[in-house]
Structures are given as C-alpha cells and as structure tokens.
Specification:
The complex is a heterodimer of chains A (192) and B (251).
Chain A lengths: L1 E4 L7 H9 L4 E4 L2 H6 L2 E4 L5 H10 L2 H4 L7 E4 L1 H5 L1 E4 L4 E2 L4 E7 L8 E6 L16 E6 L1 E2 L6 E6 L3 E8 L2 E4 L7 H13 L1
Parallel strand pairs in A: 1-2, 1-3, 3-4, 4-13, 5-7
Antiparallel strand pairs in A: 5-6, 7-10, 8-9, 11-12, 12-13
Chain B lengths: L4 E9 L2 E6 L3 E4 L3 H10 L5 E5 L4 H17 L4 E4 L5 H9 L4 E4 L1 H5 L2 H10 L4 E10 L2 E6 L4 E6 H10 L4 E6 L11 H10 L4 E4 L5 H9 L5 E4 L1 H4 L5 H10 L7
Parallel strand pairs in B: 1-4, 1-12, 4-5, 5-6, 6-7, 7-10, 10-11, 11-12
Antiparallel strand pairs in B: 1-2, 2-3, 7-8, 8-9
The chains are: A alpha/beta (192), B alpha/beta (251).
C-alpha cells in the first residue's frame, strides 16, 4: 500500500491518477499509524514552504516523517522540506537531508517553469530512464549540489534535481506530470 | 537545459472543443479528452483548456471535464475561463488541474491574483492578458478582447508579477486569428520588463512564426489552437524544425 501524506499542500489528484495508471492503489492520509504501516510513502508539496511546515506541525507529521523506515519520496516542495532549512520564508525543514534550499537569482526567469533535462543519474530510482531525459518542473527555490545528490539539472547553474539519504528520496520535478519518464520513475520508486 | 514549450489551446464549451477565429466564429474540433490525449502522445509540453461557457450549469461540466483530463493525461494542463474567486480555483485544482488562468476577473479585482497566489502558490497561477494597440499604445482588453480598458499592457504585467502570478499568457488581439505571426515586439518588451515566464498567444500560422517568437519575441512558451486542431502544423514536426534552428525543445 502506498500512503500519500495528506496535509492540504496542493493538488495531489494528478499523483493519485498517475499511480492508478500504474495499477497501484494509494491512500491519502494524515493518520500516523496508516502512514507507518504502508510499504511506500509519498510526501507531496506545493505552494509556500512556511505554511506547509505549519500544516505538518499541526498534525505532528514533522516528527513522524523523519522516523519512517520504508522508502519515502518527497516531490517538489516535499523534497525541499526534507532539507535542513529554506530561504523561502526563512523556515526550518525536516532536517533529513543536510543542506539549505535557496532561491534562483534574477539572472533567470523565476519560477523555472517547464521541461528540463536530468543528468548524472545515480540511483535505481532512475532505472530505464536515460541521461538527458526530460522532466517537468515548476519552482523558484532549489537544492544546490550536495553529497546526497543523485541527479542534477541546470538552470542558473547546476543544481540537485534529486537527492537521497538512506530511505529518503526527493525529486524536484513532478513525476506525475512528466510523461513516460515520470511514470517510469514512480514505477522505480514503487519497486524499491 | 530548460526547453521552450509548445502549448495547444483547447477552447471548450458544453464539454466540446471549439475555436474562435478572432474570438467570434466557432468551429467544432472534437472531444477535448481525446484531443488532449493525442497532444500528450505527440509530445505537446502543456495544454490549456479555455472554457467559454456562459452558464453555471456549463461550468459544472467543466469541473467534470477537468477530472477526466487529469485521469487521462500525464502532462501539465491549465484551465481558464470565467474564474472569479478562490473557490472557483479550488474546485479546478482539486479536480486535477495543474494551473488556472485568470483574465478579466483579475483586471476588475487585482486582489484576486494575490489571494490565489497566497492560497495555492504562484506556481499554479497564470494571468492571461488580452491586449491590442490603440493609437500605438498597448491597452488591456476584457471579455475575450471585446471591451477596451485604459490600462497599459506593460504596467499591468508588472502589477501582475508583483501580486504573485507564476506566468503571463499574453494574447495580442491584433494578431489573434490572423495567422500572420505573434506580437514579437511586445513579447520581447514584456520579457525585459517582468521576470516571470511569458506565453505567446495569437497569430500562429506557420512554423517560422514559432521560431520568431522564441528568438525575436523571447517567449518562453507559445500557444496556438486552430493550426494544431486542423492539422496545419503537427507538434512533432514543429519541434523537429525548432530543434534544427537550435531552439531547445523536448522531443
């Protein structure tokens, strides 16, 4: 069973549909026991970091998520909140991935919106996904290159488009919106 | 490298696709879900659904359509037309729309932009601007381009950015339906005056128009309807030709 963490942080319908297309049932839940008991956990996120962290704290999810033992996939803001802190609203994240989320400079249009290539793929998460495949991204803040980087992209310089530490994975792009490559990534995550 | 986006636009009314030429004459171009799936297979980068329905009953049909589209396609899509409130936005996003596009309602009440951005984030908010030149000045128009205002296009674009729009969909009423190319001069100026992505709309007639809008017009994305719906330009062919011109595209 796949649990999608429910904390009212944006559109998760597309994610549920993407899992359905893979023949996988998912539960949208904020219940700690259900989350703990699931095989895989997806941690979505959209919108502002500060209000997302507040919502996580309200449900005690900020304490729960770091204790999870099964594979966890943070998507977009979900990935960013796995980090220690973010420039966005100056809030602290969950502190699972060492590193700080920063804003793109005004040398580029902000947000980055659209399809970008992913490279230096270094994880089973990218099985059957090629160097230079495209993923769909919408974000104004990014995770710089870190020891935990497992894929990078380039916009205003190279940055982390995916990170991993132990059972925690984070992707900046939206796999549920990234056509075949995105669907493959979700399938790979489910196979971990 | 971030690629330039090709965005087919599906005008919908009563659950069917229509396309206005100069926003007046309508032609039927099929079932929106089927058409959307076809475009997704052809590597269109995004889709826009513009609802031109007038009644509340028809608007409910739109919410159902959004759900069907979200279940079917795996690329992002934007829904626009008649959105007036945070509640309108909420229904569409909950049904699986990735972004919403607001137009006239934002001009009438600019706070709507800030409200939507605060509630749902800038990433899901496209502000559509229809404008045409009056005595050499670009003026914002309302109600599908029918009603002129005194508002300057570039002033409005800056305000829209400040209030939290994630991108701007700019339609030149002078170019829309002409098939003579996009309003590249105004587009290029928009790109220098604001720092959010700009979608070019209005005037697509052939492949070179897309090349021009991505180069001279500095557009981040280009939107068109009838040239795609009636097969005058195919998305895969268009992208191949853009690539040959060294324009970054997703193939």
């Amino acid at each position: 069973m796949v649990a999608i963490i429910d904390y009212d942080a944006g559109n998760v319908r597309s994610l549920q549909f993407a899992l359905e297309r893979l023949g996988v049932e998912s539960t949208l839940t904020a219940d700690p026991e259900t989350i703990k008991a699931s095989d895989k956990v997806i941690f979505p996120g959209q919108g502002a970091a500060a209000s997302a962290m507040e919502k996580l704290k309200k449900n005690g999810l900020d304490k729960l998520i770091p204790t999870l033992k099964q594979p966890v996939l943070g998507i977009c803001l979900g990935m960013q909140l796995l980090c220690e802190a973010t420039e966005e609203g100056g809030v602290n994240g969950l502190g699972i991935i060492p590193g700080k989320v920063i804003r793109f400079s005004n040398q580029v249009k902000v947000p980055q919106m659209g399809w970008n290539t992913i490279n230096n793929l270094q994880s089973p998460l990218f099985k059957d996904i090629k160097e230079g495949d495209f993923m769909y991204l919408v974000h104004s803040f990014y995770v710089p290159l870190l020891d935990t980087t497992i894929a990078q992209s380039d916009y205003d310089g190279a940055y982390s488009v995916a990170v991993q530490k132990n059972n925690f994975y984070g992707v900046q792009f939206h796999p549920e919106k990234s056509s075949k490559a995105g669907s493959q990534l979700l399938q790979n995550f489910l196979a971990l | 490298m971030l690629t330039k986006r090709i965005i087919p636009c599906l005008d919908v009314k009563d659950g069917r696709t229509v396309k206005g030429v100069n926003f007046v004459n309508l032609r039927d171009a099929g079932d929106p879900v089927e058409l959307a799936a076809q475009y997704a297979r052809e590597n269109a980068d995004e889709l826009v659904f513009l609802d031109i329905s007038a009644t509340e009953q028809q608007r409910k049909t739109l919410a159902e359509l959004v759900l069907k589209v979200a279940a079917t396609i795996d690329i992002p899509f934007t829904v626009g037309g008649g959105i007036r409130s945070v509640e309108d936005v909420s229904i569409l996003l909950k049904n699986g729309a990735d972004k919403v596009s607001i137009n006239s309602a934002a001009v009438k009440r600019p706070e709507l932009i800030s409200e939507v951005a605060t509630h749902f984030g800038s990433q899901c908010l496209v502000v559509a601007i229809d404008a045409k030149q009056i005595n050499g000045q670009w003026k914002v128009h309302l109600v599908g381009g029918k009603v002129p205002t005194e508002i300057d296009l570039f002033d409005w674009a800056k305000e829209v950015e400040e209030r939290g729009a994630g991108e701007i969909l700019f339609t030149s009423m002078d170019h829309d339906g002409t098939k003579n190319g996009f309003a590249n001069e105004a587009l290029a100026r928009l790109s220098t005056e604001v720092n959010i992505p700009i979608i070019a709309s209005g005037g697509a007639g052939n492949t070179s128009h897309f090349i021009d809008t991505f180069t001279a017009g500095k557009a981040d994305a280009a939107l068109a309807a009838s040239v795609f719906h009636f097969g005058e330009i195919s998305v895969p062919d268009l992208k191949q030709q853009l690539k040959q011109q060294h324009i970054a595209v997703r193939l």
